[in-house]
């Protein structure tokens, strides 16, 4: 690991279905596991799915660039080629999108490709793609450097 990795633990109601989703659909390598939880390497970050009996994963949505963005959500920022490859794999796997893959904030410093989907437990995920992730992630259109 070359830097700080983010750790996120989320609730899932069907451990086996979510194991297939994160492992096979998203291609995340599996780490440690126990009877009721599994670690995944989520694009260089530690994601732990914890099996629970019930969970509330949807607090609503918020309008962003004309789309209803599910809240809460989590995800990862990728380069555009990585994002395009991921989206192609998601489409091939028949994943249903909450917000279809598209470009937003066109012509701004924060222009990005994005899509939203839910895992089998209902947790919302966002995948973003930037032409220059390091330069654009926190860029503003203020003109200040």
Describe the structure.
The structure is a single chain. By secondary structure, the protein is α+β, with helices and mostly antiparallel strands. The protein has a single domain, classed as 2,3-Dihydroxybiphenyl 1,2-Dioxygenase, domain 1. The chain is built from 3 helices and 10 strands; from the N terminus they run βαββββββαβββα. The strands form 3 sheets. It has a 4-stranded mixed beta sheet, covered by helices on one side. Strands 7-10-9-8 form a 4-stranded mixed beta sheet, with helices on one face. A hairpin with a 2-residue loop joins strand 5 (60-64) and strand 6. The longest helix has 13 residues, at 80-92. 19% of the residues are buried.
Instruction: Provide the CATH superfamily.
Output: 2,3-Dihydroxybiphenyl 1,2-Dioxygenase, domain 1
In total, the number of strands is 10
Q: In the residues, how many domains can be counted?
A: 1
Secondary-structure-derived class: alpha+beta
Instruction: Order the strands across the largest sheet as they lie in space.
Output: 1-4-3-2
- C-alpha Rg, in Å? 16 Å
For this structure, the CATH topology is: 2,3-Dihydroxybiphenyl 1,2-Dioxygenase, domain 1
Give the CATH level 1 class: Alpha Beta
Helix tally? 3
Helix share, percent: 10-25%
CATH architectural arrangement = Roll
InterPro entries: Glyas_Bleomycin-R_OHBP_Dase, Glyas_Fos-R_dOase_dom, VOC_core
Protein name: Glyoxalase
Organism: Abyssibacter profundi
Pfam family, one: Glyoxalase
């Amino acid at each position: 690991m070359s830097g700080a990795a983010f750790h996120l633990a989320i609730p899932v109601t069907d451990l086996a279905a979510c194991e297939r989703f994160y492992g096979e659909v998203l291609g995340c390598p599996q780490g440690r596991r126990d009877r009721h939880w599994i670690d995944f390497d989520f694009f260089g970050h530690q994601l732990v799915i914890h099996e629970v009996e019930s969970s509330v994963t949807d607090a609503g949505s918020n309008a962003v660039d004309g789309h209803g963005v599910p809240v809460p959500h989590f995800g990862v920022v990728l380069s555009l080629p990585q994002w395009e490859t991921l989206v192609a794999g998601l489409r091939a796997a028949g994943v249903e999108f909450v917000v279809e893959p598209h470009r937003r904030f066109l012509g701004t410093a924060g222009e990005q490709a994005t899509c939203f989907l839910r895992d089998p437990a209902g947790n919302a995920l966002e995948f973003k793609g930037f032409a220059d992730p390091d330069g654009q992630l926190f860029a503003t259109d203020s003109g200040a450097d």
